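Write out structure tokens for GNAT family N-acetyltransferase.
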Amino acid sequence: MSDAAMNATPAPTVPPRVLLKVPEELSSERLVLLSARAGLGQAVCAAVVESFEQLKPWMPWCQEPPTVEGMEAVMRQMQARFILREDLCYYFFRRGEDGRPGRLLGGCGLHRMDWDLRRFEIGYWVRSTAQGQGYVSEMVQLLGRLAFEQLRARRLEIRCDARNARSRAVAERNGFTLEAVLRHAMLGVDGEPADQCVYTRWP
């Protein structure tokens, strides 16, 4: 091996979490969840464009209409973060009769993770035409099983703006306890302080 090659190859400093097994696909009766990956940009972009006015009041990343190219770049960044176990982003699809993913319904994942404590936060959004059909609750139950059964979670959270009634209802329907309402604990999309609800579940 040349001196140049030796100098160009850093000693491995892989965090232990990178070697943890995390499934890239999950499924339930009506849903298939796929981890973020290259090639999903167009489908995600279409869902966000359809739902832009409903997402804009709550999602900081949804303040300008997306482009397919921009969303594809985001998919690849999320895929890298998934591999590094820095952020576990999934997209959920209506499950076809053959068991394969059909129409994309929304995004979700386990975020803001503390691997030492084994604490995870569930995040989600759903496209407008898929609201009110129980898909989000089914997805939350899937992610809950992933967190507690496979990732040995000690604490699972859902956090949201206290004014977001739909998101709060999802947490309450799925057995999360309102642990606290934190005053001025987050910035709203308008840049002003907002109260944040913290919902929790334990094993």
